[in-house]
Amino acid sequence: MDSAGQDINLNSPNKGLLSDSMTDVPVDTAVAAQTPAAEGLTEAEEEELRAELAKVEEEIVTLRQVLAAKERHCAELKRKLGLSALEGLKQNLSRSWHDVQVSNAYKKTQETLSQAGQKTSAALSTVGSAISRKLGDMRNSATFKSFEDRVGTIKSKVVGGRENGNDNLPSPTGSGDKPLPDHTPF
């Protein structure tokens, strides 16, 4: 088949012209001729298969040429329309992301994660309340009160010496003019 005279792209202004890169696709019939015939085939069947193989290989070359011509035409149309490769990529990504979002797997995963988030939030809230309650109970315990009193005593001994130095720091025992501010840590 003479591929140089074929009309590849009927819409192309270069109808019938082929690119050199696509016409150089080798068809190696010599290798096929050197291989021994498959067992059980007659020479006529083998010859028929070789002819069919050559025809299919010719069709492949033609289809590659048609595809190359269509791709060139497509690129030319995109260039004339001002569409860039980046714009096409953006559209493909946008379309793919939309397809993912409407898929059942995505919806089920989103639902599951939402439920897990709600359960986790509720669990953390419960844990926070429990910790807060335990800290409040601990603050009101006798051990904590004893510890607080000891810290107050140590502080009064350390700060008490500064009061005589006229630093005007309030006394932790409350023996100054102003009452101590309530700095509750919890």
Structure explained in plain terms:
With 186 residues, the protein is mainly alpha-helical. Among the domains are: 44-102, no CATH class; 107-153. Helix content is 67%, strand content 0%. It contains 6 helices and no strands. The longest helix is centred in the middle third of the chain and has 39 residues, at 43-81. It starts with 19 loop residues before the first helix and ends in a 22-residue tail after the last helix. Residues 1-7 and 20-24 have low confidence and may be disordered.
Feature tags:
Tumor protein D54 isoform X5; 186 residues
Concise account of the structure shown:
With 186 residues, this protein is an all-alpha fold. Helices cover 67% and strands 0% of the residues.
- How many H/I helices? 6
| SS-based class | mainly alpha
The biggest beta sheet reads: none
Find the count of extended strands (DSSP E, 2+ residues).
Answer: 0
Shape: elongated
Radius of gyration: 44 Å
Question: Low-confidence parts, pLDDT < 50 over ≥5 residues?
Answer: 1-7, 20-24
Taken in chain order, the helices and strands follow as HHHHHH
- Strand composition percent: under 5%
Task: Specify the helix fraction band.
Answer: 55-70%
Mean pLDDT: 77
Could you give the distance between the termini? 92 Å
